[in-house]
Amino acid sequence: MAVELNELRDQIDAVDKQIVDLLAQRLSLVEKVGEVKSIHGLPIYAPDREAAMLASRREEAEKRGVPPQLIEDILRRTMRESYASEKDSGFKCLNPELRPIVIVGGHGQLGGVFKRMFELSGYQVKILGSQDWDNAESLVKDAGMVVVSVPIHLTDGVIQKLPKLPDDCILCDLTSIKAEPLAAMLEVHAGPVVGLHPMFGPDIPSMAKQVIICSDGRAPETYQWLLKQFEIWGASICAIDAKEHDNGMTLIQALRHFTSFAYGLHLAQENPNLDTLVQLSSPIYRLELAMVGRLFAQDPNLYGDIIMASQHNIDMIKRFHHRFGEAIKILDNHDKAEFVKQFEGVSEWYGDYSQQFMNESQNLLKQANDAIHRGK
Ligand code: NAD
């Protein structure tokens, strides 16, 4: 039996080597695609091409008795790699006439990401860091665009402190809140203004499929090239009014980060053995630990600022706290019937989304499980 098994394993190894060769071939083709896209200014993420390609590979796989989801998983993972490497060929510069871009806070995490991307696209980028204010006037005097990317609680003050910018200079920010910075920018600068919120952190492999939120300020016709430039980088633009954005972020960021914070605080104070918890984890709990734990690997000031950005956020968190208390009453009363009733009510509210989320999370869990190594 051992001989038979070894022979089969040798054959599998040979096939795997072929897969590696094919992947190398595919990646080198992708590199060429990157070069062509860079020359012609085409976005690195082409949703229609991606959907059509996946559909035909699924069909071909099915005909060969290969599960369609298997080829889709392999290709999606390969495409992620491709998106990350496509940026190596740089990007077409959509506004070559633009005078230098000045990033205030450009040595920081997100400012650094945008500095790299602008430079990869052929723009000249200067940084106005916290120690550079003595030179601020000369740094911005010929700026074509000024990007503010400093900690949230300093943003307003930094915008107020900016020297006078050239009339046609675009002033924008990358802050996680939008209404206040946008109002401050409109107040200090009479030229084009736009509020931006990249919905990602500095740890993304590429901007493909990432969302950049855009709240118009003034003279939108003057910065359409910028939004197109982001699309070339692979990002999707989501236009929204600044106040509406901030209301959405109350749930999407403030409440979510706060519940992670409170859960982490609770874990730390209960002080279970984390190694044991990890070992005992179901895949979903492992993901939950990761989602909560990743918060504590990041900058507490950024999250403190996001959570406490407005009274509206704090009021929402307090309402959540109140509902938590109401839900606890069900437990105190050992009222299973009430639990089921409330559960069904929420399920109804989720509607079709609950099944969609079930499917999506199943895929995530399968991928999380693939990454686990149980050996020593
Ligand atoms: P960061 O702390 O990494 O960078 C901020 C930079 O600003 C630092 O280099 C700091 O030295 C500099 N700075 C501080 N005071 C300054 C001053 N007075 N003048 C000039 N520079 C000054 O923070 P970050 O995570 O890059 O966040 C920057 C902005 O990006 C914030 O508004 C944040 O809301 C937004 N943002 C961050 C993320 C993220 O995940 N990091 C995601 C989306 C949006």
TrEMBL record:
Location of the Prephenate/arogenate dehydrogenase domain: 99-361
Database matches in InterPro entries: 6-PGluconate_DH-like_C_sf, Chor_mut/prephenate_DH_T, Chorismate_II_sf, CM_dom_sf, CM_II_prokaryot, CM_T, NAD(P)-bd_dom_sf, PDH_C
GO cellular-component term (any): cytoplasm
One function term, GO molecular function aspect: chorismate mutase activity
Database matches in PROSITE patterns: CHORISMATE_MUT_2, PDH_ADH
A Pfam match: CM_2
Chain ranges of the Chorismate mutase domain: 1-90
One GO-annotated biological process of the protein: chorismate metabolic process
Keywords: Amino-acid biosynthesis, Aromatic amino acid biosynthesis, Cytoplasm, Isomerase, Multifunctional enzyme, NAD, Oxidoreductase, Tyrosine biosynthesis
The reaction(s) this protein catalyses: prephenate + NAD(+) = 3-(4-hydroxyphenyl)pyruvate + CO2 + NADH; chorismate = prephenate
Record's keyword annotation contains Transport: no
Cellular compartments annotated: Cytoplasm
Family: In the C-terminal section; belongs to the prephenate/arogenate dehydrogenase family.
Name recorded for this polypeptide: T-protein
